[in-house]
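ok so i was messing around last nite and threw this chain in just to see what happens. nothing serious, just curious
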Amino acid sequence: MKYRAAIGLETHVQLATRTKIFCACPAAFGAPPNTQVCPVCLGYPGAMPALNEEAVRLTVLAGLLLGCRINPVSRFDRKSYFYPDMPKNYQVSQYDQPLCIGGGVEIEVEGRRRTVRLTRIHLEEDVAKNTHFAGGSGVDFNRAGTPLMEIVSEPDLESPAEAMAYLQALRQILVYGGITAGNLEEGNLRCDVNCSLRPEGRPELGVKTELKNLNTIKGVFQALTAEIRRQAQVLDAGGTIRQETRRWDDASGSTQAMRSKEYAHDYRYFPEPDLLPVALAPETVEAWRQSLPELPAARRARFEREHGLPAYDAGVLVAEKAVADFFEAVVGAGAPPKAASNWVMTDLLRRLAEREMDLGACRLEPAALAALIALVERGALNMPSAREVFAELFDQGGEPEAIVQRRGLAQVSDADAIGALADRAVRENPASVEAYRAGKAAALQHLIGQVMRLSRGKADPRLAREAIRARIEDVAETDDA
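result:
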C-alpha cells in the first residue's frame, strides 16, 4: 500500500545572549562542567528568576522574520516533569500564551516551492546536559537556564528531504537575523520530530511517533527515513502504530522505542507564579521590526542585480551569512565581483571544507584577498603562484605583495625572457612539436608546461602560449620554404 507522511518539527534554538534567561550566569559554550551556575539555574528553593529582556527581543525578532503574529501579552508557565537534567523538577516554558503565533518557512524541493506553516514560537529555559560513561552518568548544569526558543511547525512536511530543506532554510534565516549562532556541534539547534503515515488519499492523519533530540540536519533526514520505513512495514503487516517517543540509533540505522508519548495534560501546566506576564508595547515591536536585517532571498537577488553574478554563484555565497559578508567586503575593497566570487566559492570554501574550519578561524582578510586578485588582474602574478600566496594568507595572514616579493613569485612578463624559454622548450621537445603540427592540441599544453617548469611557474601562461605557437609556426614556414 502507498502511504503519505505527515511530519512536524519542534525545533529548539539556543539564543545568542550573553547570559541565561533567568539569571546572570554566562551562556557561553565550552566552560568546565558546572562552573557557570548559581542558585537560580540550579533550582535552589527560594531563588527568584529575573527575565532576560534580550531573550524576549530575539524571540520576537525571529517571529517577525518568519511572519508570525506577535502576542501583545504572553506569559510563562511551569511544565512539570522529573528528569535528572531538570533541577527544579519543572521547566519554565510557555503554553497557551506564547510570544509568537503562526508564520511560515518557505522551502523548495525538486523545483516545488511552498510554505510550511508554523503553529507558534515560544520561549523557555534549556535543561542541563547528561553525559553517560561506562560506569555511570554525569550532569553538567552549565546549559541549564540557557534561553531556548522552540519553533513548532504544522505537520505540513511530507518527506525527509522536505524536513531537511525546512531546517536548512530556518537555520539560515535565524543566523542572518543574529538570533542564534547556529552551530549544530554546540547544540544551538536541536529537533524533536513528529511523524505519522496514512494511506494515500485518506485525509485524516495517522498515529504519530516522536523522534527525540536530533541535533544534526543529516540525523533528522536519516531518522525520518528509517521511521517512515518502519511504520510502513508495521502497517503493511496489519499492525498498528503506537503513540510513543523513540530515539535514533545511528549505529543500527533504526529508531528505538523509549517511552509512551506524553500528552499536554501529563505535564500539569500552570502559570509561573514568580514571573509577571510579558507585555509588549506596539512601538517597541515596531522598532524591532524596523531593525530587521536583509534576508537570504533578498540578498541573493541583490547579488545578481548589483554585482551581476549568476544565480548559482549568488545562491552559494548567501548560503552562509559569514561567507556573504566576506564576499561583499572583498568587493568593497576593490575586487571585481565575479573574480571575488570565483575565489571565495572555489579556493576559500574548498580550503575551509578540507580543514573543517569556520570562516572566522582562518587568517585571510577580505582586503588581502582583494589585493591578491588585483595582482592577478594586472598580470603581476599567475594563477599557480597566486594560489601559493593564497595558501599562506589563509594560514598566516599578511600582505600579498610582501609575500610575492619575499618568495620571488612575481610573474615573468618580459617577452624576450619568455621567448628564450620557449626556444629551449621547442628545441628540447621535438616530438611534441611534431605532434602539435599533426593536430594534437594537448601537445601544445605540454610545451607550455615546459616553459612554466623552466620559469619555475613564473611565466605568464598567455605569453608562453603565444611564444610557443610563434616558434612552431616559424619552423613550419621554414620547412615549407
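not much to say yet. The first strand starts at residue 3 and ends at 14.
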